[in-house]
TrEMBL record:
Residues 164-345 form the Protein export membrane protein SecD/SecF C-terminal domain. InterPro entries: SecD/SecF_arch_bac, SecD/SecF_bac, SecD/SecF_CS, SecD_SecF_C, SecD_SecF_C_bact, SecF_bac. The lineage of its organism: Bacteria, Bacillati, Actinomycetota, Actinomycetes, Mycobacteriales. This is Protein-export membrane protein SecF. It is found in: Cell membrane.
Amino acid sequence: MTRPDNPSQGPGKITDTAVAEPPSPSTGTDADFVADRQRSFFSRLYTGTGAFEIVGKRKTWYIVTAAILLICLASIAIRGFSFGIDFEGGTQMSVPVASSEITADSVEKVVTEALGEEPESVQTAGSGNSATVQVRTETLDLAQAEAVTRALAEEFGPELAPAEVSISDVSSTWGREITEKMAIALAVFLVIVFVYIAVRFDREMSIAAMASLFFDIIATAGVYSLVGWEVTPATVIGLLTILGFSLYDTVVVFDKVQENTRSVLQTSRRTYGEQANLAINQTLMRSINTTIISVLPIIALMVVAVWLLGVGTLKDLGLIQLVGVVVGTYSSIFLAAPLLVTLKERRPDVKRHTTKVLNRRAGITSGAVRTDDERPVHRRRAAADTDEADRAVPTGKRRRNR
């Protein structure tokens, strides 16, 4: 028999004891797919609260991606590439800038008059005492090389001596071998990546990752075509490097998407696309930090190599890495993940789940479906209940038979 805690109270009195109730859920608990937009921009970016709608606006990003591809493909088809001497062969002359009269235009004029035809390319590399004018022509014989050297010395002497003009030849056969090795290296890399992605992810993730990788190749090549810089072996090395970076960034985003969507079909709070968008937001700050950390040394490399040391090879390597890192980050966030959601939503089970979630939200909005904060709260009984009530409510303990 239950006794009242306070003996002064009669047996028929019931204490008005305060009842502990669970805290009231915040507004929108049943629809917590809504992003927290009360925070500042940088707070949302840093905490990854899902406030940036990327998957939901994927059609816009598809249009932007298609425009980038069209521009790059048009540049590749119309302008083409300026392959370096290592690929096409020929003769390259290096003229030191010994006086202010030695410029790219003046050197080009002298070489044209000496050979009777314009050189293929003339550009200045380096700065200060290390500055040189690089002239590339078709393969020259000994008489033509001597004629050009003598003409340069006569035009810019006595500051420029004939011995200071360096001339090197690269055979077209060797250049063709380099080109074939470059194509083989790129093909082997893509095959290895395809096998890894096929084993590591499911079918939709593999397709999205490969599409992102091909976009990186075309976009980077298109930018290089637009700029017009020569394609050298350093360019190929840089391309393979940034493709690995892009793949790494895509794998990080997809890992988070897998984690967020592992049991999404067993819930009714968020759709697959919303969970994927949350994953993008949660990895967005990491992608930005990684990109900034990667870009800063590349910019420093280009500054030191081009303006201080005058090393043209490092300039080519720096440009393609700079473009590739930025393009790789863009494709991982704005192409690979949204494309993954588009492919996933074509599956029947994901379609049914999306429909279920949207119908539930429509019911919540209309009041037909009860939300968490509308469900009844069970209150605990007062401390002085009757004996009959005590016997009616099981205590969870088994009575021992004596």
